[in-house]
Design the sequence.
């Protein structure tokens, strides 16, 4: 039921509740933000590893270790691909990437 009210010229009064279409848009926006937030967390995807470079001598003893760092997702795959085992031809030391 519409009622007559005194309104200033040029002003608009909308007494209708939020429409179903607008509710759907708001729900879709919240769902999108929730899913985007979920995919940004490394721990939620369980594809993170802590890696470091390790150098071992010919008898297998560790002679040097690099600084540990955490890598996740595509960065982890790229880091592993870019760091193959390297053998020093003179000392026979082997430098490799160890991740756990």
Sequence:
């Amino acid at each position: 039921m519409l009622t007559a009210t005194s309104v200033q010229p040029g002003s608009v009064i909308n007494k209708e509740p939020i429409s179903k279409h607008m509710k759907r848009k708001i729900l879709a926006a919240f769902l999108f933000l929730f899913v985007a937030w979920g995919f940004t967390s490394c721990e939620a995807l369980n594809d993170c590893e802590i890696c470091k470079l390790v150098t071992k001598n010919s008898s297998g003893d560790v002679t040097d270790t690099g600084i540990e760092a955490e890598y996740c997702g595509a960065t982890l795959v790229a880091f592993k691909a870019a760091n193959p085992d390297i053998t020093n031809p003179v000392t026979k030391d082997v430098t490799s990437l160890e991740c756990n």
Summary: The radius of gyration is 30 Å.
